[in-house]
Amino acid sequence: MSRLNSELKNMKRTLILEKAAEMFEIHGYEEMKVSDLAKEVGVSVGTIYAYFTSKEGLYSAWVLTEIEAAYVMFKKLFEQDLSFETILEQSIALKFGVMSQKRKSLESGVLNNPFFFESQQIAHKDAFDKLYSLYIEPINQLKAVDIDTMQLVYILNSIGNAYMLRWIEGDIETLDDKAKEVTAIFLSILKGS
């Protein structure tokens, strides 16, 4: 395949994925129709399935792009000369802020699969591990408990996911002020208190 053909395929894949992201965020996973996406992008349904094999594959590719975008944002945050507590709270606030904008995209997945967040973590392990690696050194410097550092990162993620689950279920009205709570909970675990 020529370089031009490869670039055109990548551009088409990116266009499909960007439009799918918009439609997931407007309609949610269940209500988003691949046929409507095909019309919006100006391709056939078969073309979409040639790139993504299924609607689930398309959703999974969208999730992966979100994780990769989060890594870029988090990396910039971790490069700042701030205390780990500040970075931690800001990273959680950033995660909650992004998720708040994507509620419709997450609702059906979360409500129909009690292990939604865990299944995404498994499906995109390498991308999550890259993101989580940002936390390793600062946690190692502060931890006062004999718990594996990566396990602590997973615990941090689980605490945040629990808040998001409660928010999507309607138990919490907003995530706006919850980053401070998650930070306090995690730091108490980290310090063994």
Characterization of the model:
The protein has 193 residues and is an all-alpha fold. 81% of the residues lie in helices and 0% in strands. The chain folds into two domains: 53 residues, Arc Repressor Mutant, subunit A, CATH 1.10.10; 128 residues. Helix 3 packs across helix 4 and helix 4 packs parallel to helix 8. The longest helix has 29 residues. The radius of gyration is 19 Å and the shape is globular. The mean pLDDT is 93.
Could you give the topology of this structure?
Elements: H1 3-31, H2 34-41, H3 45-52, H4 55-78, H5 84-101, H6 103-112, H7 116-123, H8 125-142, H9 149-169, H10 179-190
Helix pairs in contact: 1-2, 1-4, 1-6, 3-4, 4-5, 4-8, 5-10, 8-9, 9-10
Core attributes:
mainly alpha; globular; about 190 residues; about 80% helix; Arc Repressor Mutant, subunit A; single chain
**Major beta sheet, specifics?**
none
Number of domains: 2
The Cα radius of gyration reads 19 Å
How many separate helices?
A: 10
Which whole number gives the mean pLDDT?
Answer: 93
Give the SSE order as H and E letters: HHHHHHHHHH
Task: List segments where confidence is low: pLDDT < 50 over at least 5 consecutive residues.
Answer: none
Portion of residues within helices: over 70%
Q: Report how far apart the termini are.
A: 59 Å
The secondary-structure class comes to: mainly alpha
* Number of E-state strands: 0
Strand % is under 5%
- How would you sum up the global shape? globular
